[in-house]
């Protein structure tokens, strides 16, 4: 399908059941990092250390969503956004990760959920968006198999407390990123490095994902239960055999290794030797325990990566050829702008017959926005979103499974190691004054959602 101009894109073409929304996460937006009994998370600890985050930014205030959720939800309403994805901060509910429950934390999320529902906005809850309780990290965090029990306790509490009103759940956010960046490269919290930390974290996160799904199902048999995965379109740098093989290894690591065990296919150890080392951490019953029949899989695709074979890269024998080197347009994150990648990934995930439904639970772009005379004319973001929705439309028209699309993100927020330098929002925030200014992309999405651009 050739998409020519924004007016060719109509929300109504996707049907009434298609879920449109925006996605956010607790640590990136809430602030109030120790308000009303909240315990410290690994990201509170990580951001307090110098040199970990650009400009040493911290998220003590972030978007102050904890205090301004009512106004922000009202703004969602004004923008016609019908579905809101947010995560629950584990340490607001269980300040030490297990044991004593903090009622004030429960009250807060009850208020958020109730205010969303009063405004006819459907809550979509992620249980884990990277903010592990520091008290649990002190006991090894994701490298300690006990984490499955700790996470189960948290999951059961959330199901019991919020499940009467929350119908849509995502167990985990992008385990490949929090295990890779947090436990192998050390560039995200908790800043751990090394292969054995990584492999343990991967296996425990996979088990916790499937276990979380089972607990939700047990408590909420009618809920819509999913989990989200980061996925990147991987292409070889050349037609050389060794580059093609290198690209396959990266695809196995970034894409297949996280979804396939959940689908009952096990880890793709045949395609990537280093994954065989996972066996060391697996019990006989684990192969079965990593499987869960999710109602939907959330895919989060922002870009493509081009891969070259590299003798010097341990374990994986491959390296990225940056978009900058390839002379292609990028976002503020240095990620290539390549909308067809989203279609490729939808096709790839559609090829797994075990997946029932697919929702794009995140897609979006960071650009250096400026407020000029009260306006943010973010044409590049609007174009990025339009071109990605066009790829979703192509998939939909071809009859692929695709049931929703959520933009990352609602307001500018704390972008992990980038601090406040990368702005992904449809709404600009002046972080000195907390003033919100809807960007032109936000107005475009509003009009698209009300089908005002219908010809
Ligand atoms: C994460 C978000 C993040 C976004 C942009 C995703 O990997 O889920 O938390 O802000 O991408 O980097």
Automatic annotation (TrEMBL):
Pfam families to which the protein is assigned, alphabetical: Glyco_hydro_1
Transmembrane segments: none
Catalytic residues in the record: 362
Coiled-coil residue spans: none
InterPro entries: GH (IPR017853), GH_1_N_CS (IPR033132), Glyco_hydro_1 (IPR001360), Glyco_hydro_1_AS (IPR018120), Glyco_hydro_1_beta-glucosidase (IPR017736)
Domain of life: Bacteria
Enzyme class: hydrolase
Catalysed reactions listed for this entry: Hydrolysis of terminal, non-reducing beta-D-glucosyl residues with release of beta-D-glucose
This protein's UniProt keywords: Carbohydrate metabolism, Cellulose degradation, Glycosidase, Hydrolase, Polysaccharide degradation
EC number: 3.2.1.21
Record's keyword annotation contains Repressor: no
NCBIfam families: BGL
Family the UniProt entry places it in: Belongs to the glycosyl hydrolase 1 family.
PANTHER family, sorted: GLYCOSYL HYDROLASE (PTHR10353), LP05116P (PTHR10353:SF36)
Name of this chain's protein: Beta-glucosidase
């Amino acid at each position: 399908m050739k998409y020519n101009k924004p007016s060719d894109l109509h929300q109504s073409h996707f049907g009434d059941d298609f879920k449109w929304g925006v996605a956010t996460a607790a640590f990136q937006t809430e602030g109030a990092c120790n308000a009303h009994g909240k315990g410290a998370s690994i990201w509170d600890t990580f951001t307090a250390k110098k040199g970990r985050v650009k400009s040493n930014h911290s998220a003590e205030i972030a978007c102050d969503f904890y205090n301004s959720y009512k106004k922000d939800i009202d703004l969602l309403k004004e923008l016609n956004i019908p579905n809101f994805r947010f995560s629950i901060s584990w340490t607001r509910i269980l300040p030490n990760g297990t044991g004593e429950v903090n009622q004030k934390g429960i009250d807060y999320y009850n208020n958020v959920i109730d205010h969303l529902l009063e405004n006819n906005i459907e809550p979509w809850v992620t249980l884990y968006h990277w903010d592990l309780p520091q008290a649990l990290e002190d006991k090894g965090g994701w490298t300690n198999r006990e984490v499955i029990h700790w996470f189960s306790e948290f999951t059961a509490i959330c199901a019991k407390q919020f499940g009467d009103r929350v119908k849509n759940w995502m167990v985990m956010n992008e385990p490949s990123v929090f295990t890779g960046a947090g436990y192998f490269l050390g560039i995200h919290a908790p800043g751990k490095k090394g292969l054995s930390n990584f492999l343990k974290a991967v296996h425990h996160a996979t088990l916790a994902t499937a276990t979380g799904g089972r607990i939700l199902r047990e408590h909420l048999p009618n809920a819509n239960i999913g989990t989200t995965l980061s996925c990147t379109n991987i292409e070889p740098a050349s037609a050389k055999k060794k580059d093609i093989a290198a690209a396959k290894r990266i695809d196995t690591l970034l894409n297949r290794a996280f979804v396939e065990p959940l689908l009952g296919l096990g880890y793709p150890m045949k395609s990537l030797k280093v994954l065989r080392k996972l066996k060391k951490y697996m019990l006989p019953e684990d192969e079965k325990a990593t499987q869960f029949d999710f109602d939907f899989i959330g895919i989060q695709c922002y870009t493509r990566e081009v891969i070259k074979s590299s003798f010097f890269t341990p374990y994986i024998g491959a390296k990225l050829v940056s978009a900058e080197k390839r002379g292609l347009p990028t976002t503020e994150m240095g990620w290539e702008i390549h909308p067809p990648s989203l279609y490729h990934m939808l096709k790839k995930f559609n090829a797994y017959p075990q997946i029932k439904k697919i929702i794009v639970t995140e897609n979006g772009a960071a650009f250096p926005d400026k407020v000029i005379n009260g306006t943010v004319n973010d044409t590049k973001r609007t174009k990025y979103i339009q071109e990605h929705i066009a790829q979703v439309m192509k998939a939909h028209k071809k009859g692929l499974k695709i049931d929703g699309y959520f933009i990352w993100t609602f307001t500018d927020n704390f972008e992990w190691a980038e601090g406040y330098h990368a702005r992904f929002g449809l709404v600009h925030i002046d972080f000195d004054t907390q003033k919100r200014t809807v960007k032109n992309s936000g107005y475009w999405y509003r009009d698209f959602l009300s089908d005002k651009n219908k010809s």
